[in-house]
Specification:
The record marks 17 as: Transition state stabilizer. The protein has helices at 19-22, 27-40, 53-65, 83-92, 130-140; strands at residues 2-7, 44-49, 70-74, 96-100, 122-125. It is an alpha/beta fold. It has a single domain (7-141), classed as Rossmann fold (3-Layer(aba) Sandwich). It has a 5-stranded parallel beta sheet, sandwiched between helices. Strand 3 (70-74), helix 4 (83-92) and strand 4 (96-100) form a beta-alpha-beta unit. Bound molecules: 1,3,4-trihydroxy-5-OXO-cyclohexanecarboxylic acid.
Length: 142
Amino acid sequence: MKIMVINGPNLNMLGIREKNIYGTKDYKDVCKYIVNEGEKRGHQVEIFQSNIEGEIINFIQKAYFEKYEGIVINPGAFTHYSYAIHDAIKGVDIPTIEVHLSNVHKREEFRKISVTAPACVGQIAGFGEVGYILAINALESM
Ligand code: DQA
């Protein structure tokens, strides 16, 4: 499958930000892990990251125009309030899985709300970078 992985704001700071929550592996190594695991399973995986909401919407639209078959998205904090990303996911009709490194349901109240998850097939949270691979497995099963 041709799979697009999209990471939102502050995820490029992995290995630096709140290591007790997000771990010590840096962003580059997390990306390598996802691409390698994806390739082992016979997929073409491309990863995009932005701290800017509009750019994330542009990535989702690119996934449509360039015929990606699945999207794995960690919208970071945009998860909790971006109706624009929700609409973008709905608009392209590509199976999309939401991933969070941390278990957002056992953290602050505001993180328990996802406005983007209802536009997705499902949400995976709390398994660190393994969550991205679980999401790829989920896309395979569709
Ligand atoms: C996150 C959880 C969000 O609440 C937070 O804003 C992030 C990372 C996660 O992967 O656990 O930036 O999406």
